[in-house]
Specification:
alpha/beta; 7-stranded mixed sheet; globular; Aspartate Aminotransferase, domain 2; single chain; 13 helices; 2 domains; 4-stranded antiparallel sheet
């Protein structure tokens, strides 16, 4: 006998969508990887092999520097980040390695300085923040995003706040992030704002992210969703302070992934592929909306569909809701159906597994 959650996941799978957000492996994803490994990229296969040779010369130590420089240029239409403000840069396995280290280091600091560590998030945010906080023994406080001004009032000087832009709550750009960062800095300047930009590169429309606010202590980014490269674990962390737990990443890094990331950002603009695949996003949403009888529209993030639930919400809608009850939206990932629209060989089937404590 299957559980209710398994039944709902099967229903979603039959419609070619999922509750969990999956990366879309695009033809451009595979073309980039082929170019790096097959010698199509500048310098050819010899250039790729040479990146791993002569470790005693320490030439590999600087490989990630060009990756970070490329990300600055690639994201510039959207992200305003001055490297001088963030002197510490760490290549990481996606964004998750940097997020986990930042949260664990915060817990260590709290024990050393004898204060209670508290992490703040908006309800419906990326589940990893809560999981890492719990693993580190750190209290987590959730807030309604629409009530962020009231939430700022209770933040203490030693607290941290994790926020994603575009938002993991609904896959949309949060237009009040700038005001939130300014107000938080004004009310409690020493509280750290930790900015997760993992969805930058997934949005076709214009928007801006300003990182110069002094309370933004770290910026995390990833190519998992923008490039369809989740399992290549390509990401990074910009920080105002040193994280000794990531010090070894200067040496112990995946050079293949960094080369692939560099090649991808050289080939495709930060808004290019979300723009190209917007019709497939719309087609996937139209098809799944009709099949599941959900009211859906495209989210800013090109992998997602969102919509308002019925009143009262159905069991399926309740399963898919994100955010606090009074402002929650249905959110589905349309990656599998999009892949089918792009090329049927890319997705023979979809079955989203359900994780009790981490299902985003």
């Amino acid at each position: 006998m299957i559980s209710p959650h398994e039944r709902l996941n099967q229903l979603l799978a039959g419609a070619g969508v999922s509750k969990i957000v999956y990366a879309l492996v695009m033809p451009e994803t595979e073309a980039t990887i082929d170019a790096v490994f097959d010698g199509v990229a500048p310098g050819g296969r010899e250039n790729y092999h040479n990146a791993f040779r002569e470790a005693w010369t320490q030439k590999q130590d600087e490989v990630h520097e060009s990756f970070f420089d490329r990300w600055i240029e690639w994201s510039k239409p959207i992200v305003q980040l001055n490297p001088v403000d963030f002197p510490f840069r760490y290549p990481t396995a996606g964004a998750s390695e940097g997020l986990r280290e930042a949260i664990y280091a915060y817990g260590v600091r709290a024990r050393r300085e004898c204060f209670e560590p508290i992490i703040h998030v908006f309800e419906g945010e990326y589940e990893g923040y809560a999981v890492y906080a719990r693993a580190a023994g750190i209290s987590l406080k959730t807030h309604h995003r629409s009530q962020w001004r009231q939430a700022v009032e209770i933040v203490q000087p030693t607290d941290q706040w994790y926020v994603s832009q575009p938002s993991g709550i609904d896959g949309n750009v949060w237009n009040e992030l700038e005001a939130f960062a300014i107000e938080l800095a004004h009310h409690v300047p020493s509280a750290q704002l930790m900015l997760d930009l993992s969805y930058v590169g997934c949005v076709a429309r214009d928007f801006q992210v300003q990182t110069s606010h002094p309370n933004i202590a770290a910026v995390f980014f990833s190519l998992s969703k923008p490039a369809g490269m989740y399992y290549h674990r390509i990401g990074g962390m910009w920080s105002r302070q040193e994280y000794l737990g990531l010090f070894g990443n200067k040496w112990f890094k995946n050079i293949s992934s960094l080369l692939i990331g560099n090649a991808f950002m050289s080939r495709y603009g930060v808004q290019e592929l979300p723009t190209k695949y917007a019709p497939q996003q719309q087609a996937a949403i139209d098809a799944s909306r009709e099949q599941m009888q959900l009211i859906l529209r495209p989210a800013d993030v090109f992998l997602l569909g969102i919509g308002k639930p019925s009143d009262p919400p159905s069991d399926l809608e309740q399963f898919l809701l994100r955010g606090p009850q009074d402002e929650a939206l249905v959110r589905v990932c349309v990656t599998a159906r999009m892949a089918h629209h792009i090329d049927p060989k890319l997705t023979p089937r979809v079955q989203a597994r359900y994780y009790e404590n981490w299902n985003g």
